[in-house]
């Protein structure tokens, strides 16, 4: 069995309390229940807005600098993710397709080393 991360991508400034209707919440809950019943879900977590992120970088002088905001200046950020243990990439992609439908958002599927 291999482990995969399914990342949900949201636009900057995404606010779930405004953008997610009850039907979407029910779809995500149903997907989580399906993953648990299939025995593939290892972990799931939603993330606060990237605006609340702190970034830590190593400076040339060896010091660490903590900055406000996300590390990457992009228009989309990871809003949440699942860690799944599945047989292969095809199965991970199948779950990723379901996640994209439930979350109404792009999903990235990546295998752990």
- Looking at the structure, the CATH topology is Alpha-Beta Plaits
Number of individual domains: 1
Number of strands: 6
Shape: globular
Number of helices: 3
* CATH structural architecture: 2-Layer Sandwich
In the predicted model, the low-confidence regions spanning at least 5 consecutive residues are none
What's the CATH H-level superfamily name?
Answer: Dimeric alpha+beta barrel
Largest sheet features: 4 strands, antiparallel
Alpha-carbon distance between the two ends: 12 Å
Average pLDDT over all residues = 95
CATH class categorisation:
Alpha Beta
Q: What structural class do you assign from the helix and strand content?
A: alpha+beta
Q: How do the SSEs run, as a string of H and E? A: EHHEEEEHE
Q: How much is the radius of gyration in Å?
A: 16 Å
Family: Belongs to the YciI family.
InterPro entries: Dimeric_a/b-barrel (IPR011008), YCII (IPR005545)
In a nutshell, what does this entry contain?
This protein is an alpha+beta fold.
Can you describe what's shown?
This protein has 113 residues and is an alpha+beta fold. The protein contains 3 helices and 6 strands, in the order βααββββαβ. The strands form 2 sheets. A 4-stranded antiparallel sheet has the order 2-5-1-6, covered by helices on one side. Strands 3-4 form a two-stranded antiparallel sheet. A hairpin with a 5-residue loop joins β3 (54-58) and β4 (64-68). It is globular. The two termini are 12 Å apart. The mean pLDDT is 95.
């Amino acid at each position: 069995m291999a482990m995969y991360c399914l990342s949900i991508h949201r636009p900057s400034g995404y606010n779930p309390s405004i953008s997610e209707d009850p039907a979407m919440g029910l779809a995500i809950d149903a997907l989580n229940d399906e993953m648990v019943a299939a025995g593939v879900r290892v972990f799931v977590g939603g993330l606060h807005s990237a605006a609340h992120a702190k970034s830590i970088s190593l400076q040339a002088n060896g010091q660490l600098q903590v900055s406000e905001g996300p590390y990457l200046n992009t228009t989309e950020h990871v809003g949440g993710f699942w860690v799944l243990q599945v047989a292969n990439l095809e199965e991970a992609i199948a779950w990723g397709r379901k996640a994209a439908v439930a979350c109404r958002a792009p999903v990235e599927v990546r295998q752990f080393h």
